[in-house]
Amino acid sequence: MSAVEPATPSFRRKLAVVSAGLSQPSSTRLLADRLAEATKAWLGNLDVELDVIELRDLAQDVTNNLLTGYPSPRLEAAIEKVTNADGLIAVTPIFTTSYSGLFKSFIDVLDPQSLTGMPVLLGATGGTERHSLAIDYGMRPLFSYLHAVAVPTGVYAASSDWGSDAGLSERIDRAASELAALVAVSERSAQTRDPFALPEGFSPVGSFGAQ
Amino acid sequence: MQFGIFTVSDVTEDPTTGTTPTENDRIKALVAIAKKAEEVGLDVFALGEHHNPPFVSSSPTTMLGYIAAQTEKLILSTSTTLITTNDPVKIAEDYAMLQHLADGRVDVMMGRGNTGPVYPWFGKDIRDGIELAVENYALLHRLWREDFVDWQGKFRTPLQGFQSTPRPLDGVPPFVWHGSIRSPEIAEQAAYYGDGFFANNIFWPKEHYMKLIGYYRQRFEHYGHGTASQAIVGLGGQAFMRKNSQDAKAEFRPYFDNAPVYGHGPSMEDFTEQTPLTVGSPQEVIDRYAAMREHFGDYQRQLFLMDHAGLPLKTVLEQLDILGEEVVPALRKEFAVGRPATVPDGPTHASLVARRAKDEQQGAARDAAAASGPAPTGEMKDGAAASHPEAAR
């Protein structure tokens, strides 16, 4: 529904990070921070504003939004940071073969059109490396449905990855370079969205109304 | 400024006693509530329309006709009438009949309805909601204004030389409000026709409605019905009152915590902060609602939801006593202060009859053009409609 009008391009790039880890500290947040740092590094001299959304802090607000249909002021602020970004790093723990319920609930309260064209880096954590494909069979279809642009490399970190030389750093670096390439040319954060834009061709009397 | 109540007609268990009224109890309670509204000096009683339990109001004109016979001043309205799934021909007939029986004390609020299965039960598709609301209302608008209608649309069987009866009382159709929670299309539709816009703001924060109402006002002016400040705006509200604020909170909390829609969600404190729900002393309610026009501009109608979530009839009637005897008189005074003379009052049958007489005096030629004018199409976004006779009504 939102129409997009190009505004003056800004040189500042906005990068949003959504971390759905439940414990504090969480390995999900650890991975999210690594992905964010690596992406910033690839963006080099570009001015980058980084906003990290810890869903744990918003868990009750997300549930209330599911029940009432509207976001609390602080959840609304978080949603705006995510949907107005030039790129999104989305990281969730894998629970019972898929993204966590909290992660999906947050996605569910977004306007389904609000991530259209959004460059996204998909990340996930889990206890065992056997769930690494959850990124590709669980997360990737979700973001495809939302018309987001998920970069080809997803980064899965099992518990064992934090203590071995199994190539986690290389995967992080590769995925970050893919995201940075899209963020560098993104104008999403400089665009103005008009919530009252009427759909193309809308007539208040209808297409047949006065015949 | 008109004050009144609106109800969704839910049959809900009283969480403090575990008892649930029967449908018959609730139907009779709604009649008692409407009569009480008139008794305590409120202006409007508006009744919802639903086609699924736990709601009892499936046939609003039957109930409103019964209430009309037992009241003298109360304006009978709806909250809302389903413009999507009802046949607009039947709406034209039912509400014109009610208008005659009630001697003009009738207006209608159009709404789309958000209960998914109701659409297929009535042979419609919820994905066509906006399109149904727009097309069906375009037909209804003509049925009430033209004696014989030739019409063809996408959703309904065509009409040739159809006359809807009875014709509206005194040749003046019931005033129409368009209710919306979030859709700019409906604000646009209300503005195009110069109809009222009712923002049911009881479940969402005010910032959203400030923008939506601002948009409607701006478009009302664009279509040539008057200035933005003259657009016809209605707002929802919700209150529970006792003499002592703490007593009100303690008594209402179990109803809040278990209420349909928002129960088991946000705390009563968060919800009262974020929405117009006010639980406290009558003075707190007065203060909160007196400030509404600072956010939304001077407006025409304020409706309160007072009877849902299983509140017993006795309590609801007590609430209406407080609302009618303490809160509304104070609000009437507050709202009158500094209200520009150019801002219209809430529309009544008498005011519509007077406006029609004035319009006829001023431009019989324009009325003739309206009856045979060219079909408006999709271009009115860029201002073409300002010259359309309907827009200049």
Question: What report would you give on this structure?
Answer:
- The complex is a heterodimer of chains A (211) and B (393).
- Chain A has 211 residues and is of the alpha/beta class.
- Chain A has helices at residues 27-43, 59-68, 73-83, 101-109, 134-145, 168-184, and strands at 3-5, 13-19, 48-54, 87-95, 98-99, 119-126, 149-150, 155-158, 192-194.
- In chain A, strands 2, 3, 4, 5, 6, 7 and 8 form a seven-stranded mixed β-sheet that branches.
- The relative contact order of chain A is 0.20.
- With 393 residues, chain B is α/β, with parallel strands linked by helices.
- Chain B has a single domain (2-347), classed as Luciferase-like domain (TIM Barrel), CATH 3.20.20.
- In chain B, the strands form two sheets. In chain B, strands 1, 2, 3, 4, 5, 8, 9, 10, 11 and 12 form a ten-stranded parallel β-sheet that branches.
- Chains A and B meet through helix 2 of A and helix 5, helix 6, helix 7 and helix 9 of B.
